[in-house]
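anyone seen this seq b4? input:
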Amino acid sequence: MEVLWESSPQTAAEVTKALRPATNWADNTVRTLLTRLVEKGALATGESAAGPRTFRPAVAREVCVKAEGDSFLQRIFGGAAKPLLVHFAENSKLTPEEVKELKRLLDQSVNK
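predicted toks r here
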């Protein structure tokens, strides 16, 4: 998805080429993944001028990030935000600026 959010539309071969340095996935693996993402409604397809099918995101990155974050929170922490925040606070190397920003965000969430 990241590859297609960065530049779309792309063919399966173009996506494979972009992913290969980081994943070393075979062309068939990428094509299978693209097909599944189309079936789930995450990608839309079209035809390029040269004929091969092209792929583009059907959902915004922010929508996917929120859905994945919600799913992770539910699966790993039973939907409870406090254990998640404690885990990251204890196991992440946060800069003073990041701590300040997180405090600000937490204060905002309390005042909603």
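The two ends are 33 Å apart (CA to CA). The CA atoms of residues 43 and 49 lie 19 Å apart. kinda curious what u guys think
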